[in-house]
Amino acid sequence: MGMVHDLALADQGQRKIDFASRRMPVLRTLTEQFAETKPFTGHRIAACLHVTTETANMVRALVAGGAEVALCGSNPLSTKDDVAASIQRDLGAEVFAVYGADRDTFYEHVQAVLKTRPTIVVDDGADLTTTIHNDHAELLTDVIGGTEVTSTGVLRIKNMADDGALRYPVFPTNDAATKHLFDNRYGTGQNTIDGILRATNMLLAGSTFVVVGYGWCGRGVAMRARGMGANVIVVEVDPVRALEAVLDGLTVMPMSRAAEHGDIFVTVTGNRDVITIEHMRKMKDGAVVANSGHFDIEIGVEDLRKEAEEVTELRPNCVEYRLPAGNRVLLLAEGRLVGQSAAEAHPAEVMDMTFATQALALEYLVANAESLPAGVHGIPKDIENRVAKAKLDAYGIEIEQLSDQQKRYLTDWRVGT
């Protein structure tokens, strides 16, 4: 049996899961197909994902495809207890996830999932992958491969591959256009703003909003903040991304300067220590600090707690820290993923593409496992096109088609202007 907060919450969770399913037509169609073809029969899938309604529908697809699924949460504050209860009761998977789990409990859940001796690993942040390689080498003989869904996790598996440490093939779902162009930009953009508003109820219009990191997630956050009337400052280390932000009409400066100007700060870098206690000492009184990167190490949370002379919980997911200089810093969601922790995570419509891409990558992995070497493998282009086309079909949108002459022109170097 799994470990969830309260199975009595399952009815509530089931209603939410079914509502999300209505807005996930691509994954719903795949679930029906998997129920007929059973591509995952005989496989044990260990998944470490945000336990949300969208993830529940991914689990439903995998179970329909014949898999045995064990699921743990990839972030203690993103688990929805009612959803976890329904997955455990209704969807035929074992769930080890409780909202607010401490660090020890979190890793107990990771270990519990790995006790199922998985043949496939579905990761969000690479915690399962790194734990297997570091602590459970005996499991490597059973694992045929896996997927990784988030930017930080992809960075970790690529580092493993570069070091020659990665022992099985992994498909980086995050690198697929049907993931990062939509999930990262529109999903993260929307739920980050949603989390900040739920935690603070602040007016964004007229505020100075600092986005630390201008990757796809940062672009999405900046786009949504600007759309609500905020003046956006971008902090970036990559010159090309910084130049892009400038040409997008945004202000770019180092964090040491931005710290003095911002009213709201959001980190989306996938790195550590991008807002430090030195930065927070410079901030305006009442500055809001939040993180939308995968791990809570982007902000110097421990140093903030140590230095604060007074700590006050103002609202759920909004804690005020008064520093010795007198300025107060409002930290949201303990520095964890603010859109997952203080809001409802990504909308079902965008996760429809992410999880459909991931499910098809898993089907491809099973079909081609014997020929795939260890390492990081890109999502096949035909999978991305299949998902995008299915999504367009669901919207009732028809696109143009190339004529035979146009196809010949695009593949023939002899024809000029």
TrEMBL record:
One Pfam family named in its UniProt record: AdoHcyase
Query: Which annotated residues bind substrate?
Result: T52, D124, K179, D183
Task: Give the enzyme's EC designation.
Answer: 3.13.2.1
Keyword NAD in the entry? The reply is: yes
**Might you report a single GO cellular component term?**
cytosol
Q: Which UniProt keywords apply?
A: Cytoplasm, Hydrolase, NAD, One-carbon metabolism
**Family, similarity comment:** Belongs to the adenosylhomocysteinase family.
- Note the HAMAP family from the entry: AdoHcyase
Q: What is this protein called?
A: Adenosylhomocysteinase
Native organism is Saccharopolyspora elongata
Q: Which gene encodes it?
A: ahcY
